[in-house]
Model the fold of this input.
Amino acid sequence: MSDHGPAIMLTGVGKRYDIVACFARLTRTIAVDPNPLAPARYAADVRASAPAFDDPGYVPALERLCAEHDVRAVLPLTDLDIEILATARLEGRLPALVPAPEIAAATFDKYRAHELFLELGLPSPPTALPEAGAGTIPPPVVVKPRRGSGGRSIHLARSAEEASFFVTYLERPEQTAPGERPHNPDVSSPPGEPVMIQRAMRGPELSIDCLGDWDGRCLNAIPRTMLESRGGESIKGTVVDDPELVELGRSAMEALRVAGPATIQVFRDPEVGIAITDLNTRFGGAFPGPAYAALPGRSYPELIVRLAAGERPEPHVGEYSSPVTFTRYYWQLELDGELQPTGRELVPGGPPTPRRG
Done:
């Protein structure tokens, strides 16, 4: 960790040890998560808690931490507080590296995002709300929550009847008798939420990992394949040389004036062509892809530290190494009775260094 760089705060860090560790190697890093067992907290210089994101005390707590540690940039690692941080930035309360509140709100709602993409001349698949009728878009279609994340509750429908069934299933309020357990105990996918219907895209699914500066200039756009995902999170992928996707990433970032990291998910459908199916204004699960592919001194954490220091790096869109493949895996740490790291490792020195085959 450098004692001379600007302090960076990351919120909702959860298990993203890789992201927090990258920042901690560069500068003083504060990791915020309400759960004391969130592994990524232990990669930071400072571990901190805050009220729940929807608590009125959330932003004031972050303000106090920023003042205490002289934080120059705040980045969310989940979707849940992006709009809150965006509003706090607009009000001059937090140095949050996030887009404007209206963009944060629109990209959190997939149907509003679809409308925004079309308004800005960006490609988006045929999409409709259930009230337009399940047969509005020729099947196959997908029925999915407007505010879903992590690949949650996405259902493929091969007919209008199937689409109607899934709309009813997702939109219905959960009915339980007094004292009866819910039929669906999975609190991560509650029924009774707004949904939308979208053409089921064929062809390869790809993503573009991008970074915008404080003014929404795109600094880089790095496309990759999605070789394998679990729970909507990419765990294997390859960075590819694809000028068409690079330009799409740059265009989307600058049309929306996105400040900070963003992950754009697209399909190359043989009939529709390239279309954006999602845009998340935060680091994606495939954070290692652009981190490995970036040229020296130009990884996204390095650029963000420079932005926090008041520098204005020049865009270098399309400049990266390829092909670069990443594959993610699990690791762990041990805590004592006071939830402090013991320093004891299953393998001395940390994960073993891979050997060339």
Observations:
- The chain has a mean pLDDT of 90.
- The CA atoms of residues 219 and 315 lie 4 Å apart.
- The radius of gyration is 21 Å.
